[in-house]
Specification:
β6, α8 and β7 form a beta-alpha-beta unit. This protein has a single domain, classed as 3-Layer(aba) Sandwich (Rossmann fold). α1 runs antiparallel to α2 and α2 packs antiparallel against α3. It is about 40% helix and about 20% strand. It is α/β, with parallel strands linked by helices. The two termini are about 20 Å apart. It is globular.
């Protein structure tokens, strides 16, 4: 059991942080435009996420992971992210990031914000360089919803469950939550959300939670 009074599950890229990590990694190799185009298609729901992830990661082969620090110094948190997490913590909610991005980044975001858990994809690394392959099971939209449901089942009865995301990959997670929040989101996700936040400030979620989670 999770001895918490609620649960909030966040997407990471373009939600808790202001960048798409895979696009920024690709920029280190001069592959940003090619990768960003695939990312955009995936976030719009035009192509399968898992296939698109493998396709994009293949373009990253050879990048030294030591260069990742240049992308996260400082961590590019979305405005209001810390305020929202602090608010949820003050209500004793379990706070999680579940990302189709990568654990190297989600670990640092979770540490910076004080999240309780992080789940993301692994990047296969050999001699400090990316091999161009994903390691382990892929965290796609269905897996995000599965993780949310598994956490929800551990909560006390009637504890509120909230999900926050921006792309098509988040639609199943938002549907599985009691309150699904589309944050500066793609049209597909906005149509399915309970709440839409159009300004890039996560603290705007707080008054919505005040109204709906008494």
């Amino acid at each position: 059991m999770l001895n918490h009074s609620g649960l909030i599950v966040f997407d990471m890229d373009s939600t808790l942080i202001s960048i798409e990590c895979i696009d920024e990694i690709a920029n280190l190799l001069g592959q940003r435009d090619a990768v960003a185009a695939i990312t955009e298609q995936a976030m719009l729901g035009e192509i399968d996420f898992a296939a698109s992830l493998k396709q994009r990661v293949a373009l990253l082969e050879g990048i030294e992971t030591s260069l990742f620090d240049t992308l996260f110094n400082p961590i590019p948190l979305t405005p209001g992210a810390q305020s929202l997490v602090d608010y949820c913590k003050s209500r004793d909610w379990y706070c999680v990031v579940v990302s189709g991005g990568f654990t190297w980044f989600s670990e640092r975001v979770a540490g910076q914000l004080g999240l309780d858990q992080h789940v993301a994809n692994g990047l296969e690394i050999n001699d400090g360089k990316l091999t161009g392959k994903v390691s382990g099971a892929i965290i796609d939209g269905y897996k995000k919803a599965q993780i949310l449901n598994e956490l929800k089942a551990k909560l006390p009865k009637n504890a509120p469950v909230v999900a926050v995301g921006d792309g098509a990959n988040d639609q199943w997670m938002l549907q599985a939550a009691d309150i699904g929040i589309a944050f500066c989101a793609k049209p597909l996700l906005r149509r399915q959300a309970d709440i839409c936040i159009s300004q890039a400030d996560l603290s705007l979620v707080i008054p919505e939670l005040e109204k709906r989670c008494k």
